[in-house]
Design a protein that fits this description.
The complex is a heterotrimer. Chain A is mainly alpha-helical. Helix content of chain A is 74%, strand content 0%. Chain A has two domains: 1-52, no CATH class; 66-274, MetI-like (MetI-like fold). Chain A is globular. By secondary structure, chain B is of the alpha/beta class. Classes of the chains: A mainly alpha, B alpha/beta, C mainly alpha. Chains in contact: A-B, A-C, B-C.
Chain lengths: 275, 439, 309
């Protein structure tokens, strides 16, 4: 008796939830396929009178979206990779060792999450200007890395703590150095945590707007969110271009989810803990 | 097995990406125009403020022409998104990061000059022949006191756009004064059809309409050199006429505009008109491309700005233009670029492409400005006694905050939380304080 | 072999690197340097402005004014209103994001047909930037040209258009809805990752004892993922509190300041007023609130051990 009811509730919840979540996406996709004049014509059309790819052609041909996508990919992936490398080390240390300033380091990390970034934006610009890093992709890679290290460390530390330390101790008795024990024995078991962190970092970088506006000047180095923001003009929002850009900007993230999904799902169950 | 392979691939891509990232970042910095020696190629850095993708393309085209004519000068154009642009310009100037030419607006001129960011151009224009044909309004908008801080690249002046078909349907004429406008707006309003009279804007930039109506209701007493004040030194918000004007404004919102518009900004205001929700729009000419692109042009009529009870109207001309950063290392080359962009030929081209009013008197003869959308502006310009130009008040520190103050208190007024009298008291105090604290 | 000295040094060096202290030092070094130089240093410089008359309009007249910025702030009705709004904004958003996110994660933790597609719909909002979310929802919420009103009228649910962003009774709820919509994905993915790491032996043992689904959830699953729950809810609360982008994009704090939260008020002072002093002062108060909240939260959840605080 209870089972079917539960199942029905589940189905209702899923369907409702899916509709609410999916509708904005539907609206964006439909808008991106409408001819320019139809986007704001009344009454609203829930299906285009005529499907067109013109908005997509425009943003590639006129707005050169492929350049921005490439920039965003390059910067977001690099920064996410560097973040993971650095944060794995510090998270491991913070999970496994107790040392005198342990508490302070953790507090210092937590505190970074509380700082309202806009207060620091102008001094940060000044600093980057003095370092000669304005208008270079490296400035964004650096900023994104720094911004994400604390959270990634906190996150990864949680994953490390779930792995028994007997694992790398055994490897070290077998003659591995601590570093190689970390890389060869622990990291493979941690793959789900690492992918989650990587994806999180990637997505944050992929979406970041304010620093990208400030630190990049050249058209050839601009990132996707900046390019999208330029469709907001004084008197107009170019929703045709904006919606097509939105669709294109969601694709890489979805693809990354699809790839990394296996690591998150299969993560521990295939790892050394069980086997 | 498969999982292992994928793990390796992931690690491989991570390492590869790391390498590329590091390499790609390094080559990009350092060519920011620091080669000051003579004979070498000079790089000018230039930033625009009123950015749109189409406008950037036009500018790049003009810059390319300049570079062909001046092979020893290279121009790097920075085009930040419109809503972040002024902030970015301020940050660059504050950090004294390399910059030569910048777009200054009527809203930013006093802040920039106050901080010493701008090079006065008075000496440069002496040797520039085209300055003679520049119209006076373009010069005053770019000056503070006797100093010229930028060469205007285009001017803005509001006119009335209205739905011809709606007016015909209701059998009414386009309004000539504010009372008629409010009456017309109320007539056109029919919420059941999702139709409203006036494209109201209560969000960013909300102060435009109430300030203009109040000025027009105080027409005879306004101090032309200090346009928020009367000749006797009191603020224009302190008079009984101001109360009349503001009551009319509230009526316009409550009875002739969409309720939602209390929070609208420029984009929604224009979108409502192009989508056929509203029938009257007061806007600058650079809104025209958005209108003609999305609407049937035959339904759009234009009319002069409404007048006040005196039978006359103040018109405010806004503008933006090119200035030189005070710390630029290449000022002469920078002015060369500005002079090129501001020549009658180039400026007229720019004005046509971006739908602005050109700065040279000769340009109004261009057939482009004889078309329906622009002829009203020319008509207004041809009757300077009826449509009196009033210089916008930009010298006070509060100018940049005023929009925000007027927006928030204005919204409280429109929601009925604060009375007309108390709102005016608040506004009067704001400006009285500004005047008292001016150095 | 015959060269004694270098090998000793080498051994000393590698010894230091392999000794716990050396390992700790080298592992934390890049992190600490980067965070101190690029996060704390600019921030401290920004904080100084709270005690200065620092107006963009007149940078020639920057000087220390003691606590004046704070006095002005505490006397400002807008500040009080924004503080109260912040509380609603954070807790309603957080609680709903978490409950929905957890339900979704629990559902996704089991295999079913169409899971991949479902997952895509759960996660995609996260792949949009905050400014874009603001823009899209502002457009959809518009009472005249927006699709939500149109949809509600066509389906006969309402007869009069609702000013989702312009009616002060609706505005705060509307921005919170957009924020919840945006934030579910974060919890869903983080909690899903944690759920995946629950060893299946625990469930097997639970099933043998005959525990029901709900029992298993509260006695096995939740305790196991508790550290993740505490960390993510704490951090999420902090981020929601600190992030102005959705409000900035949707209402800009309007109408009449009714949707300002502290962080959007701070941004407002920078973007429109150019008053960095006032903005920094709000920033300091925000950090103070967050610190108190964090201490309170960690005490209540008794998780000092978790983060080693």
């Amino acid at each position: 008796m209870k089972r079917p009811l539960q199942k029905a509730l589940k189905v209702v919840f899923l369907t409702l939830y899916l509709m609410v979540m999916a509708f904005p996406l539907y609206w964006i996709v439909i808008t991106s396929l409408k001819p320019q004049k139809e986007i704001f014509s009344f009454p609203l059309h829930y299906w285009p009178s005529q499907l067109t790819l013109q908005n997509y052609i425009n943003i590639i041909k006129i707005s050169k979206f492929h350049i921005y996508i490439a920039n965003s990919l390059l910067i977001s992936l690099s920064a996410a990779a560097i973040v993971v490398c650095i944060a794995v080390l510090s998270a491991y240390v913070l999970a496994r060792f107790r040392f005198r300033s342990h508490r302070h380091v953790m507090l210092g990390f937590f505190l970074t999450q509380m700082l309202p970034g806009f207060v620091a934006l102008a001094p940060l610009y000044l600093l980057m200007s003095k370092l000669g890093l304005i208008n270079s992709r490296i400035s964004l890679v650096l900023m994104y890395t720094v911004g994400l290290i604390p959270f990634s460390t906190i996150l990864l530390k949680g994953f490390f703590e779930r792995i028994p330390s007997s694992l790398e101790e055994a490897a070290m008795i077998d003659g591995c150095s601590r570093m190689s024990a970390l890389i060869r024995v622990i990291m493979p078991v941690m793959l789900n945590g690492i992918s989650a962190t990587f994806i999180f970092a990637f997505v944050q970088n992929w979406n970041e707007l304010f620093m990208a506006v400030m630190f990049i000047d050249d058209e050839s180095m601009k990132t996707l969110p900046v390019a999208m923001n330029s469709f907001v003009m004084k008197f107009d929002v170019d929703w045709g271009a904006m919606s097509a850009g939105t669709v294109l900007s969601v694709v890489p993230t979805i693809a990354l989810f699809a790839v990394a999904q296996r690591f998150i799902v299969d993560g521990l169950t295939q790892g050394a803990v069980k086997g | 097995m498969a999982a292992k392979k994928e793990k390796k691939m992931l690690l491989g891509t991570v390492a590869g990406v790391l390498l590329i990232g590091v390499l790609a970042g390094c080559g990009d910095n350092g060519d920011g125009g620091s080669n000051g020696g003579s004979g070498k190629k000079v790089t000018l850095r230039m930033i625009e403020s009123l950015t749109s993708p189409a406008r950037t393309a036009v500018l790049q085209e003009m810059i390319a022409k300049f570079e062909t004519a001046n092979p020893d000068i290279k121009v790097e154009l920075i085009s930040p998104p419109f809503d972040q642009a002024d902030n970015k310009i301020k940050t660059i100037l504050g950090a004294k990061e390399d910059l030569d030419v910048l777009e200054v607006r009527d809203q930013t001129i006093s802040e920039f000059s106050n901080n010493g960011y701008l090079e006065p151009l008075n000496d440069y224009v002496k040797d520039w022949p085209d300055y003679a044909t520049e119209v006076d309004v373009a010069k005053t908008v770019a000056s503070l006191g006797d100093k010229l801080y930028f060469i205007t690249n285009g001017m803005y002046q509001r006119q009335m756009f209205y739905r011809k078909d709606w007016f015909q349907e209701k059998g009414i004429q386009p309004p000539t004064n504010y009372e008629e406008m409010v009456a017309a707006a109320i007539k056109l309003t029919d919420p059941s059809k999702n139709r409203y009279g006036f494209s109201f804007r209560g969000g960013p930039g909300a102060n435009g309409v109430p300030d203009t109506i109040i000025q027009n209701y105080n027409f005879d007493n306004i101090d032309h050199d200090d346009s928020s004040f009367l000749k006797d030194g009191k603020s224009m918000y302190s008079t009984p006429e101001a109360k009349q004007a503001l009551e009319l404004y509230v009526k316009l919102y409550k009875e002739g505009s969409p309720k939602d518009s209390i929070n609208w900004g420029y984009q929604e205001q224009v979108q409502a008109f192009t989508s056929g929700v509203t029938g009257i729009l007061l806007q600058d000419p650079d809104a025209i491309p958005a209108l003609t692109e999305k609407m049937d042009v035959n339904t759009i009529g234009t009319a002069p700005m409404p007048k006040g009870p005196s039978g006359k109207a103040f018109t405010a001309t806004g503008g933006a233009g090119w200035g030189i950063a005070s710390y630029s290392k290449h000022k002469d080359e920078a002015f060369k670029l500005i002079a090129f962009l501001s020549s009658p030929e180039q400026n007229t081209y720019f004005a046509i492409k971006t739908a602005l009013i050109p700065i040279h008197s000769s340009a109004s003869e261009d057939p482009f400005f004889q078309t329906d959308m622009y002829k009203t502006l020319l008509e207004m310009a041809s009757k300077p006694d009826e449509f009196v130009n009033l210089k916008a008040n930009t010298k006070y520190p509060g100018t940049s905050q005023w929009g925000q103050v007027a927006m928030e208190s204005g919204q409280s007024l429109l929601l009925g939380k604060v009375s007309v009298e108390d709102t005016l008291k608040q506004w009067d105090k704001f400006w009285a304080d500004q005047r008292a604290n001016l150095k | 072999m015959n060269d004694e000295q270098p090998s000793v040094i080498r051994r000393l060096r590698t010894g230091f690197r392999n000794s716990p202290r050396g390992f700790i030092f080298f592992s934390l070094l890049p992190t600490l340097v980067l965070v101190l130089v690029f996060t704390y240093y600019p921030f401290l410089r920004g904080i100084v402005m709270a005690f200065q008359n620092y107006q963009l309009f007149d940078l020639t007249n920057v000087h220390f004014i003691g606590l004046d910025n704070f006095k002005t702030m505490f006397n400002d009705a807008k500040f009080k209103h924004a503080s109260i709004n912040s509380v609603y904004w954070v807790f309603i958003s957080l609680i709903l994001q978490f409950t929905i996110g957890l339900s979704v994660a629990l559902l996704l933790n089991k295999r079913f047909r169409g899971r991949g597609i479902f997952q895509g719909f759960v996660f995609y909002p996260w792949a949009l930037s905050g400014f874009l979310i603001g823009l899209i929802w502002k457009w959809m919420f518009n009472s005249q040209i927006g699709v939500i009103n149109d949809l509600l009228i066509r389906t006969g649910i309402i007869h009069e258009r609702i000013g989702f962003l312009s009616d002060p009774n609706w505005a705060l709820s509307s921005v919170i809805v957009a924020n919840i919509w945006y934030g579910i994905a974060f919890f869903a993915i983080m909690l899903l990752a944690a759920l995946q790491s629950v060893p299946s032996e625990l469930y097997e043992a639970g099933s043998m004892d005959g525990a029901s689904g709900t029992r298993k959830l509260f006695s096995i699953t939740m305790p196991y993922i508790m550290p993740t729950v505490i960390t993510t809810t704490l951090l999420r609360a902090i981020w929601i509190f600190n992030d102005p982008s959705i409000i900035y994009g949707l209402t800009n704090g309007g109408p009449a300041g009714s949707t300002h939260i502290l962080s959007s008020l701070m941004l407002d002072k920078i973007m429109y007023g150019g008053d960095y002093g006032a903005a920094s002062a709000i920033g300091i108060v925000m950090i103070g609130i967050l610190m108190l909240y964090t201490i309170f939260y960690l005490t209540v959840t008794r998780s000092e051990k978790l983060g080693d605080f």
